[in-house]
Amino acid sequence: MARWLVAAILLLTAAPALAAPQRVVSMNLCADELVLQLAERDHIRSVSYLARDPAGSNVAALAATVPVNHGLAEEILAADPDLVLAGRYTSQATVALLKQVGLRVVELDSPATLDAVRAQIRAVAGLLGEVAKGEALVADFDARLAAAVPAPHPLKGLVLRPNGYTVGQGSLVDSVMTRAGLVNLGADPALAPYRELPLEALVLAKPDFIILDEEESPRPALAYDVLRHPVLRHLPYRMQAIGLPSRLWTCAGPAVADAVAALATAARAMEAAP
Question: What is the pTM of this model?
Answer without folding.
Answer: 0.84
